[in-house]
């Protein structure tokens, strides 16, 4: 009993820490949007959003799911950290070389323009390798359950980006090139911080570099199964940005980016919970893992529901006060996105369960179901309703994805869905402990 309480306390501590990490990360990203909206206007924010979305998609393809696969194998004990690090390093070198060559050829043959142009275009070359490196390094820290280190690395990226943009804005030198250069530079800094926190000097590099492709083969074989789903999820989140840009223009992308950014704040807790649960679910037995996942999913939904109600009430004032009157058009899409954001928060937690139980294809199937709905609904609604159509399509698609995830959870766990949906005394205790831990952390003040 004492050991169970200790494990539960450690789980809640890690969830609290990762929740604050997500809050800081999203809060800083929100600050970036505010600065860019004020400095560059809705069209400039739309251009910036299309650049970083393209980098996210390219990095999502290039990393081949090696990061999450490394978390799985570390906690299964199948490979040492050194063997997995050697495989990841081998893939990263290949990605950096091939991507740099692709950007150079595209720029020379087609001209340096893809959402951004001129010298800003060439920042695609370092952006993707920098992001892939961060995904790999964060995965190794996650696999070791070093969530404090992940918090520091993520915070360094966000603070660097905000500080650079704020300084350039104050000096009157903030343009699209400076904006994307600050974003790329912030990830290079985060890479350095994450690498230092991983303490590479303690690794047995002779073991890591001894035929690294052997471990890499298994990392890719397992990782690709889930990475198809991760990439589909990313497209599910961002495909509508491209379609809004095509049918309504870049200013409309700026309006939609604000609505999406605020709605995604509901995922802070879900992302934190799934991040902490993944290593544990990989090591637990079937019944224990199913119980942990269903309690976490229920608690995440109830907490996020309260956040959605507050966001809906405050959004009319919040949007115009922070972004300006030209972004008033973001308020209605934000309200339409909230039901879908709530549904997707539960899907995120269930996705960690499916992946952690060795069924990445189940996770992929749920996400692909949602993506298919996104594509059909986007093409039907965006040409007609533009930004409002994108919000309706996303919200409906997220709920369809949740339905698929619930079906697959039921199939894998063998538990009836009413157990997942029914609130019990244990859930109330978990909510109380989680809230009390967050209050203590938020209320803590440094001593004199």
List keywords for this structure.
globular, 448 residues, two-stranded antiparallel ribbon, mainly alpha, disordered C terminus
Describe this structure in words.
The chain has 448 residues and is mainly alpha-helical. The chain has one domain (10-436). 85% of the residues lie in helices and 1% in strands. The chain is built from 16 helices and 2 strands. The chain has helices spanning 2-62, 66-76, 81-110, 124-143, 147-171, 176-198, 205-208, 213-248, 250-263, 267-283, 286-323, 331-356, 360-385, 387-413, 417-421, 425-443; strands at residues 113-114, 116-117. A two-stranded antiparallel ribbon has the order 1-2. Strand 1 (113-114) and strand 2 form a beta hairpin. Helix 1 (2-62) crosses helix 6, helix 1 (2-62) crosses helix 10 and helix 8 (213-248) packs parallel to helix 13. The radius of gyration is 21 Å and the shape is globular. The chain starts with a helix and ends in a 5-residue tail after the last helix. The model is unreliable at 1-9 and 441-448 (pLDDT under 50).
% residues in beta strands? under 5%
Rg (CA only)? 21 Å
- Note the overall shape: globular
Taken together, the total number of domains comes to 1
Tell me the major beta sheet.
2 strands, antiparallel
Mean pLDDT: 85
- Please give the alpha-carbon distance between the first and last residues: 39 Å
* Oligomeric organization of the protein chains: single chain
Low-confidence stretches: 1-9, 441-448
- Counted by DSSP, the helix tally is 16
Q: N-to-C SSE series?
A: HHHEEHHHHHHHHHHHHH
Number of DSSP-assigned strands: 2
Strand order of the largest sheet: 1-2
Percent of residues in helices: over 70%
The class by helix and strand makeup works out as mainly alpha
